[in-house]
Structures
1.
Amino acid sequence: MRKKVTVVGAGNVGANVALRIADKELADVVLVDVIEGVPQGKGLDLLQSGPIQGYDVHVTGANDYEPTANSDLVVITAGFPRKPGMSRDDLLFANYEIVRSATEQAVKYSPNSILVLVTNPLDAMCWAAAKVSRFSKNRVIGMAGVLDTARYRTFIAHELGVSVENVTAMVLGGHGDTMVPLVRLTSVSGIPLAELLEPAVIDRLVQRTRDGGAEIVRYLKTGSAYYAPSAAAVEMVESILKDKKKVLPCAALLEGEYGIHGLFVGVPAKLGSHGIERIYELKLTAEEKAMLDKSAAAVRELVDVLEKKFG
């Protein structure tokens, strides 16, 4: 029997997630959105690409969750972008309500599914989905580290004029200004980055990575990134559906790892058919640990705001 994936949100990220899943023939896809006609139209358009692209998967769209029943995996991309005049808390509360509703419906129709969160603020939305779903911690996963690491690898490869495939890197922490690219463990075909670039250049690339999303928003003006975020989400989806057991930086619920308790924070995790099958606890330097603690504290601030309002 074919696998089945529900993608919540038929905007740019969601539609591209659906497209990449279909292109890779990973699963049948149900695209869900509250806007009448949009998921149906995009789903039909994607379905009609099949004869040309050479994929044989079923893509449908819906405004309710009944067609999503028995999905193996649910990718939640729906949410508001931050608009002028909107406070951080306004965005947090608005997207909490979207993620809460989506999670409730996903759990109702697909109680055995694995949830992959893409909606921002990512780490706090993972906490919300875990709270609402009551799923075991291996079945709620956030997409951020894969994207942040891809940006980091891209900038390094371009700076050095080498293939992105030769760059090995890992970005930990929350998805935002406090993310932690691990320079010490970054290499190009095994050559430590510190032997290839001056510290000032490395610092510049690290900062550009932290500002990666904002840089794209500045160019687009009315939207945010969606090609790389969708590719990152689908790398996770593929590892889970194919039981590839890739070790990827994902937002995972920590219960003492890295000295962090009860928060979703980006860490290296093995993704297989059961979701997160192992969290790898790296031996960090004092400086790296301090940066990760600062990142976790930023996530804690958001979670505290949600707990105060919603309990």
2.
Amino acid sequence: MKISVIGAGHVGATTAQRIAEKELANEVVLVDIVDGLPQGKSLDMWESAPVEGFDARTTGANGYEATAGSSITVITAGLARRPGMSRDDLLAKNTEIISDVVTQVAKHSPDTKIIMVTNPLDVMAYVALKKSGFDSKRVMGMAGILDTARFRSFVAMELNVSVRDIQAMVLGGHGDTMVPLPRYATVAGIPLPDLLSKDKIDAIVNRTRKGGGEIVGLLKEGSAYYAPSAAVSEMVEAMVKDNKRILPCAAWLTGEYGLHDFYMGVPVKLGKDGIEEILEVQLNDEEKAALQESAEHIKSNLEKVSL
């Protein structure tokens, strides 16, 4: 089992580290165009193996030959947000970068599954689908798990309870139009609306939508990477272990929720073949309207993409 991570910045390197420490592959390959960067970081990871107790070999490369035969490829390459930027501001440049990356990935690993992390995520997943020519079940985006994790963490902070007892779901695009579903959130099985007022829930929803921007503003340089890398590793683990996890991911829609021909965050079943099923949950009129607004935002960005 070989897993490759394209992009050795904070997100990519931390993702590679998590995958290696969980021993989800025999070999983890970190790729970046900057000479010495993936080699140095992967060597540093490998030197931590005796302490952390993992045997997954970590290697770095500036080309794609080392990734040949990867079972899963995680793509984090591209420009990161800076303060004042939206995810959409990255559209043109990252479309160019991801087009080149995916072409190389598909050439060297024609049977791989692609997890897109680069922003604007829903559009970059579309670019990956078109450039790879893969079946859509093998091309997906990491977004919903991260957004849901943020929602859950804010609920835990508000209630002063363990995050392990909180379940939640966030649908829609990865951005300010995402659609957290408080009605489906529970704390140890107790519906969230039974524990918090609407005003407090609305504040948590708003903070979740702006969660990435909050971190960008605090860091000043770069964007979040601990939580995104954790979300990616959860997706990788679900596929490697074929344990049929139900997780919110950016998936190619072909009529689900009444939507067609673009990527958006929805609950999916993840297994060894990738996205095995898209689950449809019942939405009320307000939730449907919010999801439609998110869909329109994604489609407006897709119209700007030239492949």
